[in-house]
Amino acid sequence: MRIALASDAWAPQTNGVVTTLKATADTLMAQGYEVRVISPQGLRSIACPSYPEIRLAVAPGAHVARQLQALRPHAIHVATEGPVGLAVRGYCRAHGLPFTTSYHTRYPEYLRARWPLPLAASYAWLRHFHGAAARTFVSSASLESQLAQRGFAHLHRWRRGVDLRRFRNLAPHPELAGLPRPIIACVGRLAVEKNLHAFLGLPLPGSKVMIGDGPQRAALARRYPQAFFTGYRFGDELASLLAGADVLAFPSLTDTFGLVMIEALACGVPVAAFPVPGPIDVIEQGVTGVLHTDLAIAITSALGLDRAVCARRAAAFSWEAATAQFLAGLAPIPRALRATLAVRRSSAMIAPVVARRQTSDAGDV
After folding, report:
1. Confidence category of residue 331, pLDDT binned at 50, 70, 90
2. I need a surface site. Which of 65, 70, 153, 173 has the fewest CB within 10 A?
C-alpha cells in the first residue's frame, strides 16, 4: 500500500507535529507500507510570520501534482493547513480523490495570541478546509468534543505514542548536576501560546529547567534569569534531561495533545498541568500527575507521585497502536481513480521524497 503524507511541518522543524508524522511514517514503513512525505523541503519558501524557523512553500502546486502522479497512492493524508496541505487538498478536489486530514494545532487560539483575529472567523476557515475530507483525525476525546461543538464533522480518533526504547529511566544528564532540587522541567517551543509565564513566574523552591527554543527565549531569559535555559535538545540527550527532572510542568492551555507529557511519563517523571484538553486526556489524576487550576499546587502535589507507576502507564502509548488508528481512518482511493493518475515513476522523481526504511534517523526523508 502506498500512502502520500502531506505536511507543511517537517524537518528541520522541531515540534509535536513533526515528531508524530516521523514516528508514524517510520512505523508504517516497518510494517511494509510505502510512505511518501510531501513537504516544503527542496522548494522555494518564505519564513512564517512570527515563526521564522518555519518555512512556508511558495506555489507548491506543480510539485504536489508531480509527486502524486508519480506515486499513484492508495490513500492521501493531509496533515497541515499550510500551502502544501492546501495544494494537496486542491489537487484531490479537482480530481475527485478522497483524502483525510488531521487537526494538530489550535491555530485560532495561536493567532489570537498574536493578533486580534476573531476565533469564529478562524474556525470557519478551518471547518471549510477540513470539511472536504472524508475524515478529520483528532488526538483526543476532549478535542473531538470541542471540534464537534464548533461544527466539525466526520471526526476520527488518532492517539499519539512514545518511543519507549528512547524515553525510559536514564541517568540524569550531567548538566543537571548541582542544580537545587526539586528540578521542574518544561519542554517545548518558547512561544507566547505556550503560556510559559504561568510557570516561570511561580515562586517555587528548586530549579526551573526550560528545554527548547523559540521566539520568546531571549525575552524570557532576561525576565527570569533564575531559570536554566538549555535550548533545543534531541534524542537521548532530551531523554536524559527529562529523566533527571522531578516533575514536568506543562503550562500550555492550547495544545491538542502534548507529546512531551507521555515522553516524561515514560522516563518516570510525573506531570503537573492545568485541567484543560490535552492534559485531561493523558494524565491520570493523582497517579501519573496532578491537574489543578493553581499550577504551583499541581507541581508540589506531583512531587510525591510514584515514578515507577508513571513509567508503567506510559507503556500503553505505543506508536504501533497509534498507527493502527491512523490506518483505520484512511480513505482508500478506488482503483479506477488511481488509474487516472499518470503512471510515470522515474527514479529521479521518487528518490528525494520516498521515505525509506534504511534512513539513519527514524522517519527522516
Report:
1. very high
2. 153
Question: Does 244 score more than 90 pLDDT?
Answer: yes
Q: What is the model's pTM?
A: 0.88
Domain-located, residue 363: no
| Residue 180 belongs to domain spanning | 174-314
Q: pLDDT tens-digit profile of 176-233? A: 999 999 999 999 999 998 999 999 999 999 999 999 999 999 999 999 999 999 999 9
Supply the CATH number for residue 26's domain.
3.40.50.2000
Beta strand pairing status for 45-48 and 34-38?
A: unpaired
Burial of 303 (0-12, 13-18, 19+ CB in 10 A): middle
In a 10 Å sphere around its CB, with 0-12 CB exposed, 13-18 middle and 19+ buried, how is residue 346 labelled?
exposed
Give the pLDDT score at 342. 63
Q: State how far the alpha carbon of 287 is from the alpha carbons of 165, 265, 270, 284, in Å.
A: 23, 11, 8, 5
Side chain identity at residue 321, one-letter code:
A
Handedness of CA 319, 152, 154, 111 (dihedral sign): negative
Q: Which neighbouring-strand residues pair with 157?
A: 138
Q: Residue 244 in contact with residue 172, Cβ under 8 Å?
A: yes
Q: Give 337: exposed, middle or buried? Use CB within 10 Å, 0-12, 13-18, 19+.
A: middle
- Assigned C-alpha cell, 178: 548541582
Residues in Cβ contact with 86 at an 8 Å cutoff, skipping those fewer than 6 apart? 129
Structural contact between residues 138 and 156, judged by C-beta atoms closer than 8 angstroms: yes
